[in-house]
Design goal:
There is one protein chain. The protein has a single domain (22-175), classed as Rossmann fold (3-Layer(aba) Sandwich), CATH 3.40.50. 37% of the residues lie in helices and 19% in strands. It contains 6 helices and 7 strands. The chain has helices at 36-46, 55-62, 74-90, 104-114, 131-136, 144-157; strands spanning 7-10, 13-16, 24-29, 50-53, 94-97, 119-125, 167-171. A hairpin with a 2-residue loop joins strand 1 and strand 2 (13-16). The two termini are 15 Å apart.
Length: 183
Amino acid sequence: MASSGLTKTYGDCTYQTPPTQDVTAYVLVGLPGSGKSTWARNLIQLKPNTLIVGGDPLRYMISGGGYVYKEEFEPVVRSIKKAAIPIVLRSGFNLIIDETNITSKRRNELLVDIGDVARTVAVVFSEKNNNLQNRMKEARGYNAEKWQEVIEKMRAAWEDVNENFSDILYVSDPNDPKSFEGV
């Protein structure tokens, strides 16, 4: 959607929305190890006016540089992500929400957070036989058994994308240039 070019305040942040700036929010949907973060990094190379918001970078940040998943940190992680979404979009940047986003409830919450300030694209990553192998390249302190348990739990909770996104893009290879057509 075109921005108004007005100065706005969100919390303690004041920002200028660029006039006639069209922005897109990419909501990534996929199991761990499916290529979401790889695709996000590749898209930033094609669209430098794009920022990533995701729980993993925040977990690195709030734990002092190492990946730590602690349930007591998650309310902080969720609050930061929720606050960042409108700030990024209204500042005229495209946004990639790099999370698993496997449930309809979570995707609908994101659509509410995004509102009408951006075109919304669900980027759905296909199931792979090597999800666990890919995740173990960056194991984040967990062993293969733990990651397999996490992946299986998420696979069981998976809900197909049927929300009201502007577009849905299906990706099987996050390094394939065709996976960026139309973005």
